[in-house]
Amino acid sequence: MELEITWGIGVKDKAEELVKKKINNDDKNLTPFEKLLKKKKEKKKQKKLKNKQKENDNEESGSDEGSEDEIPSDIDMNDPYFAEEFNKTEFKKSSNKKKQDNKNTSDVDSEDEKRKAELELLLDEDDGKAHFSLKKIQEGESESKKSKRKRKLKAKMMEQRQALPDFEINVNDERFSALYDSHHYNIDPSDPNFKKTKNMEKLIKEKLKRRPSDTPVQNQVQSKKSKEEAELSLLVKNIKRKIKDVIKK
User: Fold this and answer.
1) Where is the NUC153 domain (predicted)?
2) Residues 141 and 199 occupy one common structural domain
């Protein structure tokens, strides 16, 4: 009799890869909200399994403790007398009551664990991903409203500028005559409130053009120059005199 054995190399790894691929394909078809629900459901399932395992461990430890408490160590259960006594209904009732108490305690613990797990799921931050902050959302909305108002105001100002035609000032208008003649209406470009515009430059040029070029202005300039020359010559004479005095000494 001949036996033919075929070894499938890497079958386990291939099976795991296929399972992972199927899970990934299923996850791709889910929406972000469905993925979040699935993740929370898996966490809840793991918590439930842990609680169930803990409950089973408590039952096993409780049964061991019950048997140790109910049957003393120096009693031989192979003895027909003790076997008959421990099989009586009174003993069974007390044993069942103790088991029921242990079960009720474990049920309460499991309920507490369940509530705790639900709270953890509610307060869980999903591996470092923070939940929505109402305060931040409100601040963002107020900022967006402010920026929206600014954009609207800016657009409105641009529309007004485009609607207004280019204003050309008439420098020959009689209403501007005082601006050219009176010193009360001098234009000072160094003033902080001065705005350099096309029409303002026209006014300045027109004012300079109309400035009177009569002799009093020229005489003032000449008299100022002659005064400076006289002061300079006097200073030179004083210096020469002092030098002579020093040489004589």
Assistant:
1) 173-201
2) no
The structure tokens listed for 132 are 């929505």
Residues 146 and 223 in one domain: no
Q: 72 with 47: CB under 8 angstroms?
A: no
Contacts of 24 (CB under 8 A, 6+ apart): none
How far apart CA 97 and CA 100 sit, in angstroms, is 5
Residues across the chain: 249
Angle at 125 between CA 120 and CA 126, to 5 degrees: 100
pTM: 0.24
pLDDT (0 to 100) of residue 215: 45
| Amino acid at the residue 184 | H
Same domain for 84 and 57: yes
Other Cβ atoms closer than 10 A to 82: 14
Report which DSSP code applies to 165: P
Low-confidence ranges of the chain (pLDDT < 70): 1-15, 19, 22, 24-28, 59-110, 114, 116-138, 160-166, 213-225, 249
Assess contact for 121 and 43: CB atoms under 8 A: yes
Q: How many other β-carbons are positioned within 10 Å of the β-carbon of residue 51? A: 19
Which of 21, 6, 120, 102 is closest to 59 using CA atoms?
A: 102
Cβ–Cβ under 8 Å, residues 216 and 223: no
